[in-house]
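Dear colleague,

Thank you for sharing your sequence with our group. We've completed the structure prediction you requested, and as agreed, I am returning the results in plain text so they can be pasted directly into your records. Please verify that the sequence below matches your submission; if there's any discrepancy, let me know and we will rerun it promptly.
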Amino acid sequence: MISKYLYVFLISMVPIAELRVAIPIAQGFKVADPAFNMTVAYIICVIGNMIPVPFIFFFARRILEWGADKPVIGRFFSFCLEKGHKGGETLKNKAGRGLYYALWLFVGIPVPGTGAWTGTLAASFLDMDFKRSVRSVMLGVLTAGIIMAVGSFIIASGFTAITG
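Please find the predicted structure tokens below.
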């Protein structure tokens, strides 16, 4: 059982996947094993998704800038830099004075290309206040987690009802 929680914890830390993948996997574990606790899984996924945030904020931009011109990793690092810069500029242009609310919504709407990794990198590119950025990202992660948990529950319930 603990290995399942560890599995969703680690997936929630992975960029792009984050808790948008971890929570549906946890719901699958719940369907297969009714003893699996989705509340505990949700909390674990949120914690796992938030652990990289300070490291991304303070170090990712520097590492990406360092590696952008390197032979093997340069292309990927340049892609990440471009994605973070584009996300930051889009957020800044659309939000105006409500930048922290926009960051919350950017992270909280679970669609590809958004999430704690991209939102935090964008906040770093925009030189936003660390504490306020972390609060906004945390609210976004909680929001996205709820949306994914409800959506996963509805899909799993429908699948279970159809298949018996």
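Summary note from our side: The chain has one domain: 2-163.

Kind regards,
the structure core
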